[in-house]
Design brief:
about 300 residues, globular, 13 strands, single chain, about 25% helix, four-stranded antiparallel sheet, alpha+beta
């Protein structure tokens, strides 16, 4: 804008009239005020007669959770160039959980997992494990935020090739050394030549608060109940309110993880992804060879894939 007033008018017209934005701002204000007036930690103020002595023997067992990111979080699956033979997995974990492990079985019913890496005959897995820094805003009202916070995380990616068309696989991902595994996922590869299939087209799931992203998770749940034959989700952009908002991505993907562990989500960049840097590349693993040429990925990614007799 050419002036402060012009910027304010734009934001008011574009965002403030939307109920979800008003709810989000209200939630942020509530958390800010609560942080100033509610003291959950009385350690510095407790009277001396509340002191205790704690005695323990041996290590303390940690109960791993997806919320705290010991277990795989922000899970997304995508197709490679050919959905009948390739599949990619992407997830994040806490800064010390560095295992990129996969148990994959070709079977029609859930197997007895052993806690060790496993691949069916003929399937290859290319693994990538990187230490990365992701950011989110301590005060976040969607496209505008204050007090940026950095979080050290591990990013895990696996490219599967050599899958058999028209086949059911069960899998789980995680850190085998620690015994930190995801829930069981079910992967069904297309036959490669069917003339009909069902997929969901979704967009603009962008939100501000964790509760709001839960609405998108419930929407996907309801859609799959109505269309249980759903093969994958085609998402055409604005998944989050700001492409750099790590917690927005976490809330969005985790709220739908029960279903996203069973189906691919094929993303397209919207303008809100483009507010960030390399948002699609950061949260989805899209096979580099699907287009075959180097490209500028800061605001989005070009790629293609075949699902049965359709080229996307």
């Amino acid at each position: 804008g050419s002036s402060v007033d012009e910027v304010i008018d734009y934001l008011l017209d574009e965002y403030i009239y939307i109920d979800s934005m008003v709810d989000g701002i209200g939630d942020v204000l509530y958390r800010m005020i609560s942080g100033c007036v509610i003291d959950d930690d009385l350690a510095d103020h407790a009277p001396s007669d509340n002191n205790v002595t704690y005695v323990y023997n041996g290590p303390i067992e940690i109960a791993p959770t997806q919320e705290e990111m010991q277990l795989p979080s922000l899970i997304s699956g995508t197709f490679g160039a050919d959905a009948s033979t390739t599949y990619n997995l992407n997830w994040y974990t806490k800064y010390y959980v560095d295992g990129t492990d996969l148990e994959l079985y070709q079977t029609d019913k859930e197997p007895n997992f052993t806690g060790k890496n496993n691949l069916p005959k003929g399937v290859q897995a290319k693994k990538f494990t990187t230490q990365e820094v992701r950011s989110f805003n301590g005060v976040d009202v969607g496209v505008i935020g204050l007090m940026s916070v950095d979080r050290e995380v591990y990013r895990h990616r696996i490219e599967l090739t050599g899958l058999t068309p028209g086949t059911t696989y069960y899998y789980r991902i995680g850190d085998a050394a620690r015994g930190y595994w995801s829930e069981t996922g079910k992967l069904i590869t297309p036959s490669g030549n069917d003339d009909s299939f069902t997929f969901l087209h979704m967009s603009d799931t962008q939100s501000i608060t964790q509760e709001q992203y839960g609405v998108w998770g419930k929407l996907l749940q309801d859609a799959v109940e109505i269309y249980p034959e759903t093969a994958f989700v085609a998402h055409t952009g604005d998944f989050v309110d700001h492409g750099d908002g790590f917690m927005q991505w976490k809330w969005g993907l985790d709220s739908a993880s029960d279903h996203l562990i069973n189906m691919a989500i094929m993303p397209t960049a919207g303008n809100h992804e483009a507010y960030g840097t390399n948002a699609l590349d950061n949260y989805f693993h899209l096979s580099e060879d699907s287009i075959g040429i180097p490209q500028f990925t800061e605001t989005g990614t070009y790629y293609s894939y075949d699902y049965n007799n359709v080229h996307f």
